Known about the structure:
Layout: E1 4-7, H1 19-30, E2 35-40, H2 43-48, E3 51-62, E4 65-74, E5 77-84, H3 86-89, H4 105-123, E6 129-133, H5 140-147, E7 156-161, E8 169-170, E9 191-192, E10 195-197, H6 199-205, E11 208-211, H7 214-219, H8 230-235, E12 240-242, H9 270-280, E13 291-298, H10 304-309, H11 311-315, E14 320-327, H12 329-341, E15 346-350, H13 354-363, E16 366-369, H14 379-385, E17 389-393, H15 396-401, E18 412-414, H16 420-432, H17 434-446, H18 452-464
Parallel strand pairs: 1-2, 1-6, 2-5, 6-7, 7-11, 11-12, 13-14, 13-16, 14-15, 16-17, 17-18
Antiparallel strand pairs: 3-4, 4-5, 8-10, 9-10
Bound molecules: adenosine-5'-diphosphate.
Adenosine-5'-diphosphate binds near residues 22, 297 and 357.
Amino acid sequence: MKKIGYVATECYPFIKVGGLADVIGSLFKIFYKNAYLFLPLYKQIKENFKIEKIGEIEVFFSDTRKEICKIYKLSNFSNVILIGNDYYFDRDEIYGPSGKDYLDNLERFSFFSKSILEVCKHLNIKIEVFHCNDWHTALLPLYLKLYYKDFFQNTKVVFTIHNIAYQGVFPSDKFIYLGLPWDYFSMDELEFYGNINLMKAGIIYSDIITTVSKRFAEEIMTEEFGFKLDGLLRKYKDKIKGIINGIDYQVWNPLFDKYIKKRYKTSEGKIANKIFLQKELSLKVGEDIPLFGMVNRLVEQKGIDLIIEKFENLIEKEIEIVILGQGEEKYKEKLLEFKTKFPQKFSFIYDFNEKLAHQIYAGSDFFLMPSRFEPCGLGQMIAMKYGSVPVVRKVGGLYDTVVDYNENGYGFTFLKDEEFIGTIDRAISIYKNKKLFKEIVKKCMQLDFSWKKSAEEYKEIYESL
Ligand code: ADP
């Protein structure tokens, strides 16, 4: 198999903010023997893992921008290369505070992308396929083509769009930091309505673009979901492919989950976890109260505004809701307010908490994902493994993975905001029929969203390039 270089800003278990980390962690694990992983050396990695310095080089952008790149590797994983520069990466956050970006993210991630190529050259690592992910790494194929063709003569690039909403858009006066000829600031290149758009580099200069579900691959080429890049993507439609993400069942499995109260194989095993969760969160304890869980970033994409808008309607029902998430301040304030108002029926934890996330998947009866758009979504697939029945909006990866109960399926789906409460009612009424609900839970738990098939598809791409 070819030598792959995974290039990403997150990878579980080293550093995680969202689903990207899970995906890269899984792929790297599967192709470990033939792969390198390149990550920024964040403060959090320094604090939690043993690392070794293996070199130091200068990375040239222009006469006015040269940066020092300290090269490290993880002590126990010699193929995890860490790109170090304390000024850029020794910070409290990965991308920026409270869901916002650091103002110098263009400098930070152009440094990351270019340094990787320079480091490979320095260490003589001949990557055959770089697999870049999201806008932070989108400059790599362009730098490769412009400045590193001699070293990487036959190297190809796969660019995966995990989220089209984040494109790396910066004011045009930052262009000088990129170390690119001015020709590249044009409509056919990186210019985007007067600004710079880094994701464009990934779209134009990679050999294949993948995105994380078949449905999303189609959606991003439409005006509704393309976030103004739909035209460009349609131009490159022949190199776009949708591959659904998988779940790592060694990490997400109620049979050997180290975080949950009681491990389980069938729906009965969930009861102890539900009671535990209710107690832990000071909710009213009751086996028969349908419990809706949500574990997600608190951003508009995830439909959190819909939950807030319909909250009074929701909470008047005989249900309980728990939300674990971090993100925008406005959502946080509102949810805290609801928590104070309905302490026995609603719990909200503003945190990033791996352990509690597992406990919510295990202890909830339903899992809420009313996302406005959803490239793939891991939450619903994890939830199903834990027998938490998904209630989702039929978009992107949620469309591909959740089939409505009314269509012989195992979940509850809706499209428009007006249908949300009706869908919740439908879920509650089925829940009351214990036998039926048990069958649905069983169906969910038996589904296979492992990486087996998708990893095979990636492998085919790597080999075909
Ligand atoms: P996205 O990548 O858009 O954030 P996904 O559904 O693809 O959404 O993946 C989210 C991943 O992050 C899941 O593994 C989920 O459990 C985890 N996650 C999200 N928010 C939190 C949180 N506050 N605490 C713990 N885990 C979280």
